[in-house]
Amino acid sequence: MCLTYDHTGDETRIASGMRDRRVQVWAFDSKGPLIPIFSVKLSTTIPRTVQFKRTASRNLLVFGMYDGEIHTLRGSDGTIIGTNKAGPMIGHAAVDAPQTLFLIDNVVNGFSLHRLEDGACIRTYNTNPVKTFPKQVVFGDRATLVVGGSDTGTIRIFDKNDGALKQVLQHADRGPQHSLIFGATSTNDAEPTISIWCRKRATSPSDHPLGSEVRNFVRGIIQLAIAMAIIAYLIEHLSGITSLGNAWREYSKLGAQTADLTNTNIRSLVEQYIEALRGEELERAQSSGADRRHDGQAKLVKPQDMLHEVILLGN
Length: 315
Known about the structure:
Layout: E1 2-6, E2 12-17, E3 22-28, E4 35-41, E5 47-52, E6 60-64, E7 69-73, E8 80-85, E9 93-95, E10 101-105, E11 110-115, E12 121-126, E13 137-140, E14 145-148, E15 154-159, E16 165-170, E17 177-179, E18 184-185, E19 193-194, H1 209-237, H2 242-252, H3 263-288, H4 303-314
Antiparallel strand pairs: 1-2, 2-3, 3-4, 5-6, 6-7, 7-8, 9-10, 10-11, 11-12, 13-14, 14-15, 15-16, 17-18, 18-19
Helix pairs in contact: 1-2, 1-4, 3-4
């Protein structure tokens, strides 16, 4: 019927509540078998949910299904030491982390929020149920949301403080939905299905550092290849070191901007280098006699031939 455990103390405890109104508690030690702590049978209450109180006494809360009662059983022997009433019936119950509030499926009009101290109702979350099936309800997002099932194939999410319906998650076209794993449909005439949702949160570029690093790495490789192609061309076609040094200094001036270079920028840069080289070669050719051919004569190259291999590196 229901089961819970607690490991906040020196030993782990397991509690169960059965349809025959019996509540049992065991101590669990991984080195040996379960050790019975107590076993009691309640007079009228059929347990729907059991929950340990996280105190030194390790008392047990028992939420009754058909009578809406909440019993506190002493952790040592199961004696009832307190009783409150939350409603006519309890389809399911969940206690918040501080153990000051609890939620129930009240089976009448939806879910309701209560004080654990005295069982008083604080707020109701209306779901207009079609049938009185028990429906699971839990706290969500650090106890700021109320998340519960339905008998119409949906999961409803409410704001805990103002009761506003924030979202409806569609899980099935029809039929009752009894449990949340985050949503399980159980019917007699269809295959059971389980749906899981993930809440989307705002992301920033810092959440994906690997993608930025890869892009920067690829951009750096391309820029390095272009620089090497320029250097190789200069070494092959120039006899002096001066032009190579000037070209490298011009390229280095863009160091702070290389991350933003486009193919158009790169092409323009290379064209400027080649035009300058052609001017130098023409001057040398004219000074040595344009009509004379000898082994040291400058050779003119078309700009498009020079650009062909370099621009491919930038694409």
